[in-house]
Amino acid sequence: MIGSILIANRGEIAVRVVRACKDLGIRAVVAYSQADADTLAVKLADEAVCIGPAPTQESYLNSKNIIVAACLKRCDAIHPGVGFLSENAAFAKAVEDAGLIFIGPKSETIALLGNKVEARKAALAAGLPITPGSKEAIADLADGKRNASQIGYPIILKASSGGGGRGMRIVRKESELEAALALARKEAKLFFGDDAVHMERFLEQPRHLEIQLLSDGKGTVLHLGERDCSVQKNHQKLLEESPSPILSESLRNAMCEDSVRLFQELGYRGAGTVEYLVEGSSYYFMEVNARLQVEHPVSELVSRFDLVRAQIEIAQGKSLSLSQKDVQLSGYALECRINGLSAGRIEKFVMPSGPHVRVDTYLEAGSVLSPYYDSLIAKIIIWAPSREQGLSVMQRALAEVEIEGVKTNLEEQKLLIACRPFSSGRFGTDLYAKVCDQEKKHA
């Protein structure tokens, strides 16, 4: 049994895990950097331990310090949250070797899925459709030209060991390939320590959907429906909703069944998502996120599952006691990410409330939004019986937000929620550029 968990992350996800621990009667120990000493997660934790100065390489990415801290605090397990070391196979293995429980997939599963080329191979072997692309990482420019010629332009270069929009370059003609390949490799090395990149056919106006899954590693895999994450800026998600307004029931069922089969064949353990690009009536496997997602509250609201609690229980060796027919998805959920556009002290911080409104944050009036870390300030999540009602609830919620002291994307979120393409449900991953960038030109 797990009696104490070290939370190796920060921000709103650290607060989220602390609360799950308290619900389960588990002692929550938060690992924090010097810059995060006064944050909400530290205040709410049963104990807290400083793991280094502000720079991430010296704190939240310092796996040795994190594991030592867990041992010194006599923790049984480490929860990696999202980002940072949550998909680092070497860290998961080091946690296991230290005699601790890693709350997430097995290290070998993370290693397989962390390499996008190998993940595509696994998906293909499980019978999932994938976009045309290179079978291996691109060896050199000549190899890149051969693959691009076979795939057909436009193509997209992707970091084989990364994600989140880093190490990506769209190439529309051969004359652009050499420079794009060099830039993609440089960025991949900088962010992921590996300059390997592969290429896929670039889809111009796809929808970006992901299937949320829970698996106990013993053969039982449940899906909690899809999330539509198509509203993005520079490949970074801004809005997430469930269910997607564009999926037919047959397409939804096919994607969910494929995802479940993939996790069963992988022997996957814990929470994870399978991501797809959808174009018309076709869908293509993109990648697996072998961790909890930032947008997990959307699935929690439509399924009434506590995903963090489930992660911890699965890590303790518990089997999922439900079958898929027991999973009842209802209503509509939507999440808006409120991001900071500048660092500094937050002078005023008013978040919305009222029926069916949830706010995940780690900040309050007087808090400092650090320049060292991700710019996420708060996630505002709503639930409603229908999408139409949900958009109205979100508009009301956003109107209640007041943040002073730092610049945010609040006005952009209001614009996106109210625009005709979003309300119609008919848009692609270029919605932000069409709506917000155009608004800036006319301002």
How large a portion of the residues is in β-strands, by DSSP E? 25-35%
Q: Return the CATH topology of the largest domain.
A: D-amino Acid Aminotransferase, Chain A, domain 1
Spatial strand arrangement across the major sheet:
13-12-9-10-11-14-19-17
Largest sheet, in brief, is:
8 strands, antiparallel
Please state the CA-atom Rg, rounded to the nearest Å.
21 Å
**DSSP helical segment count:** 15
Any low-confidence stretches, pLDDT <50, length ≥5?
Answer: none
What overall geometry do the principal axes of the alpha carbons give? Answer: globular
Count of extended strands: 20
Instruction: State the helicity in percent bands.
Output: 25-40%
What does this structure look like?
- The protein is α+β, with helices and mostly antiparallel strands and 443 residues long.
- The chain has three domains: 4-103, Rossmann fold (3-Layer(aba) Sandwich); 132-201, ATP-grasp fold, A domain (Dna Ligase, domain 1, 2-Layer Sandwich), CATH 3.30.1490; 207-442, D-amino Acid Aminotransferase, Chain A, domain 1.
- Helix content is 36%, strand content 26%.
- It has 15 helices and 20 strands.
- The chain has helices at residues 11-24, 40-44, 63-72, 89-97, 107-114, 116-125, 141-151, 177-192, 249-266, 296-303, 307-315, 387-400, 410-418, 420-424, 431-442; strands spanning 4-7, 27-33, 47-52, 77-79, 101-102, 155-159, 169-171, 197-201, 207-216, 221-233, 236-242, 269-279, 282-289, 332-339, 344-345, 348-350, 357-361, 368-369, 376-384, 402-404.
- The strands form five sheets. It has an eight-stranded antiparallel beta sheet, with helices on both faces.
- α4 runs antiparallel to α5 and α12 (387-400) runs antiparallel to α13.
- The protein is globular, with a radius of gyration of 21 Å.
- The termini are far apart.
- 49% of the residues are buried.
